[in-house]
Design brief:
With 400 residues, this protein is an alpha/beta fold. It has 13 helices and eight strands. It has an eight-stranded mixed sheet, with helices on both faces. Strand 7 and strand 8 (378-380) form a beta hairpin. The radius of gyration is 40 Å and the shape is elongated. The chain binds guanosine-5'-diphosphate and magnesium ion.
Length: 400
């Protein structure tokens, strides 16, 4: 073949290829057009291509999820608010119980202080009178002096002219005195063994009954040990509390050995999976040397029944006895390890300020306060709530 022929052939091929290409393109376009035409005629919208359908579904799912999360967050918020309201209500109940329990004490030395600072002009004689009121207030001489010095030395001359400033200082120092540095009660041991002691009639058995009620209500398995075998009535009284609270009890023979009752109770507590064993004890007068020996023996026997027991030893003090309660606590503490104080009968006492003296002189934490004879009349001690309630009628109520 000649070159010209070859060239012509090549051109023809290119032209044919170009024509074929053009024809294919036109075909696709007209197919699309006809489909659009049919849709148009039928009045239907073009369905979203498969590729685009998924993002919309995903978008919807994301929106749905966001809405669900928002609703969940709203629910959580509502629950939080409810819990906070309950907390406030619980605090209000505590504050009310403290306030009622300290009414008589407020009528005592706090009212006298109120009269002092209610005067139009506070001057040097007011400060002298403050000293007198504090020292005769059943709060113990050390606590009285500490509060007095904090006012006299801690405030400037100008501040001393303001009753609000003086009240604030009294509040602040009282709270400092009451905030005894102590480890919180560790009830993790099983059983947790609590020994309760104190002189006759201070409220040991009643306090044990209230504690048993509180702890059984919390779902704990509680066992009481009737360690006061000197008086038959004491065991009956504890039995009554056991029945009322749903706790179990280990009793001894009348006039029997208290340490054998406590030994048996701790053993039973250990063997039968009790959470708490509370041991009641007899409390003849603290001047009775025999009692101290007896109590020391109880501690030794407890440790034999379960190494490390008792885990806490609480002394019960009757606030109506005022400074006598401080001297009782001092005598006991000289001989025994005391890890906590329960101060009873605040409701009937004008001498509730004694708790200041107890905390200041003994440096033992007050664990609970008794504000009545009923099972619910036992409150965990709270220094801030105590100070608030004690001085609630007086001057500025700003927290110290
Ligand atoms: N008003 C009041 N009375 C209490 C309180 N605690 C105990 N009592 C009463 O004090 C009396 C002696 O209590 P009790 O538990 O038998 O003292 P115990 O001898 O130490 O065991 C009883 O009449 C109790 O009802 C309290 O917090 N407030
Ligand atoms: Mg008793």
């Amino acid at each position: 073949m000649e070159t010209t022929e070859l060239l012509q052939l090549a051109i023809a091929i290119v032209v044919i290829a170009a024509v074929l290409l053009l024809l294919r393109r036109a075909g696709t376009k007209s197919r699309a057009k006809s489909a659009a035409g049919v849709r148009e005629r039928l009045g239907v919208e073009e369905a979203a291509p498969v590729k685009r359908r998924r993002p919309i579904r995903e978008k919807k799912a994301v929106e749905e999820k966001a809405r669900e999360e928002e609703e969940e967050e709203e629910e959580r918020e509502a629950a939080r608010e409810e819990a906070e309201e309950e907390e406030v209500a619980a605090d209000e109940a505590t504050a009310a119980a403290y306030k009622a329990g300290l009414a008589k004490t407020r009528g005592g030395f706090v009212a006298r202080l109120g009269k002092l600072f209610g005067k139009k002009k506070i001057d040097a004689t007011t400060v002298d009178e403050l000293e007198e009121v504090l020292f005769t207030a059943d709060i113990g001489p050390r606590a009285a002096d500490r509060i007095f010095q904090s006012v006299k030395k801690g405030l400037s001359k100008d501040d001393l002219e303001s009753s609000d400033k003086i009240w604030k200082q009294i509040r602040r120092t009282s709270k400092e005195i009451l905030s005894v540095d102590a480890k919180p009660v560790d009830m993790a041991k099983k059983p947790f063994v609590l020994l309760v002691l104190g002189v006759n009639g201070v409220g040991k058995t009643t306090t044990i009954g209230k504690l048993a009620t509180k702890w059984t209500d919390e779902g704990k398995k509680v066992l009481l040990a009737a360690g006061d075998t000197f008086r038959a009535a004491a065991t009956e009284q504890l039995e009554e509390w056991a029945k009322r609270s749903g706790a179990d009890i280990v009793k001894g023979k009348p006039q029997g050995d208290p340490s054998s009752v406590i030994f048996d109770a701790i053993k039973k507590g250990n063997d039968e999976g009790y959470d708490i064993v509370i041991c009641d004890t007899a409390g003849r007068l603290h001047s009775n040397v025999g009692l101290m020996d007896e109590l020391k023996k109880l501690r030794r026997v407890s440790d034999k029944a379960m190494t490390g027991a008792p885990h806490e030893t609480w002394m019960v003090l009757d606030s109506t006895t005022g400074q006598n309660a401080i001297s009782q606590a001092k005598t006991f503490k000289a001989d025994m390890e005391i890890t906590g104080i329960v101060l009873t009968k605040l409701d009937g006492s004008a001498k509730g300020g004694v708790v200041l003296g107890i905390c200041d002189e003994l440096k033992v934490p007050v664990r609970f306060i008794g504000v009545g004879e009923k099972k619910e009349d036992l409150r965990p001690f709270d220094a801030a709530a105590f100070v608030e309630a004690l001085f609630s009628d007086a001057g500025s109520t700003d927290a110290a």
